[in-house]
Amino acid sequence: MVAYGTAALCCTLICFCLMLGTECYTGGSNNTFTVQPGGSVTIPCYYDSKYTQQRKFWFSEADKCAIYTNFTSETVSVIDHPAQSLFTVTMRNLKMNQYGEFYCFVETYEGNKTTYEGLLEIKNAPDVSVVSSSVSGDEGGNISVKCLYSSAYKNKHKHWCRYKDKSCYTSQSSSVQISDDERESFTVLMSGLMLSDSGWYFCFVGDRQAPVQLTVSAHTIENNTETTNDTGSSDGSGESTLNDQQKEKNMSLWLPVSAGLMMIIIMVAVCTWKWKNRSAEDKKLMKNNAPDTVTVEETVIYSTINDENPNNISQLQFKANTIYSSMEDPAECEGSPAGGTVYSTVAPH
Questions:
Q1: Average pLDDT in the 297-315 region?
Q2: Quick one: pLDDT band at residue 49, thresholds 50, 70, 90?
């Protein structure tokens, strides 16, 4: 009953993959890599995210030694990438005697758990290889990978596979196109890249594969205006673009000028207001300090007659002996005010 359920699940998964233009890759003994003597290869070993904190290591049958993560030497590096739930094994300057099986392990409480196994072959003419083992592209863009194969694998099926979910593209799709030139190479074109496309892939021919790392970066769209030719575009879009550029340029020039004029107007208004207030205060101060005016309602003439008495009469005596007299001024006299009164003081002799 369990076997039937497992078979049904596998059939359902295979049908789903075929609908997407892919086929399922189950791993196992098909993980064979061929490398030239003196060459290098990097192999990703994925693990479950629950093992992020566990120790990981790589074991080679050829060297009979285990190398734990975050170790680097001239010939081998084993580096853990917890954020991606994988560790990579890089073997450099490979020699003919390094042929054999290898394993990727994760230490668990139940014992060592195999996460990946494969076979490494060293050949002068690799069965499958790639021009570049690392490619990068922008989000929304596309990348191209050229996969090489030997003449013995000319009639083998060519696939573009992903390590993470073990799925392979076997036919053309909207995002992946595979074209075989049948001259010992085929090209993989991925278009409409998404950030989630980042990861490890491999060119898969028959039972041989070559790993490729894909990095997709967030794409920043720059608002660059293309330069138009002298004749301009037929739909008038070039002229519209130039007009928009001129408007933006004029706006950038007028903004600082307008700000400067506004500041000048404000300063002039403040100075004028202060001057007017100061002028009003000065007028008010002058008015308060001005002497009182005397209004003469009638003409009064005072005169003092002294007969040049040699005797100096004191002021007190003068006041005591002062005689006041009044007389009518004839109307025909010239030089006296009409109807006026003349007061005179006669000092005694």
A1: 50
A2: very high
pLDDT, one tens digit per residue, over 90-106 is 999 999 999 999 999 99
**Per-residue three-class SS string for the chain:** CHHHHHHHHHHHHHHHHHHCCEEECCCCCCCEEEECCCCCEEEEEECCHHHCCCCEEEEECCCCEEEECCEECCCEEEEEEHHHCEEEEEECCCCHHHCEEEEEEEEECCEEEEEEEEEEEECCCCCEEECCCEEEEECCCCEEEEEEECHHHCCCCEEEEECCCCEEECCCCCCEEEEECCCCEEEEEECCCCHHHCEEEEEEECCEEEEEEEEEECCCCCCCCCCCCCCCCCCCHHHHHHHHHHHHHHHHHHHHHHHHHHHHHHHHHHHHHHHHHHHHHHHHHHHHHCCCCCCCCCCCECCEECCCCCCCCCHHHHHHCCEEEEECCCCCCCCCCCCCCEEEEECCC
Confidence of residue 24 (pLDDT cuts 50, 70, 90): very low
pTM of the model: 0.57
